[in-house]
Amino acid sequence: MRTLIVRLSTSYFKSKNGIHCKKTIRPLKRLSSGYYDILEDEIDAIGVQEAVEKIENLYACADGIYELICCDCNYDWESGCLEEFNYTLIPYKKDVDNS
């Protein structure tokens, strides 16, 4: 199964241009399995801004470790291929069997 585990962190800072809030999404390669760079493909296809905007609950999540999963999947009625989808972050829970 393919999973993408990410660390979400927020930083606040001030510069001569204003006050800033920055969310960082960092893939955790060792915790991810299979194809971990789902988001990288999305960025190559549609750009950073659109890819980040597809993460539905990004600004509602506190700093921590999350699994990035697909949601709101829409399939083509003829071919059955996945056409559109969004992402959501769910808190990562370490598998008890693998600890």
Please characterize this protein's 3D structure:
This protein is α+β, with helices and mostly antiparallel strands and 99 residues long. The chain has one domain (4-12, 19-93). The chain is built from 2 helices and 4 strands, in the order ββααββ. A hairpin with a 6-residue loop joins β3 (64-75) and β4. The two termini are 18 Å apart. The model has no long low-confidence stretch (mean pLDDT 86).
Features:
single chain, 99 residues, alpha+beta, 4-stranded antiparallel sheet, 4 strands
Topology:
Layout: E1 4-15, E2 18-27, H1 38-46, H2 48-53, E3 64-75, E4 82-91
Antiparallel strand pairs: 1-2, 1-3, 3-4
Task: Give the termini separation.
Answer: 18 Å
Output the radius of gyration. 16 Å
Main pleated sheet: 4 strands, antiparallel
Number of alpha- plus pi-helical segments: 2
Number of extended strands = 4
Brief digest:
This protein has one domain. The protein has a four-stranded antiparallel β-sheet, with no helix packed on it. It is of the alpha+beta class.
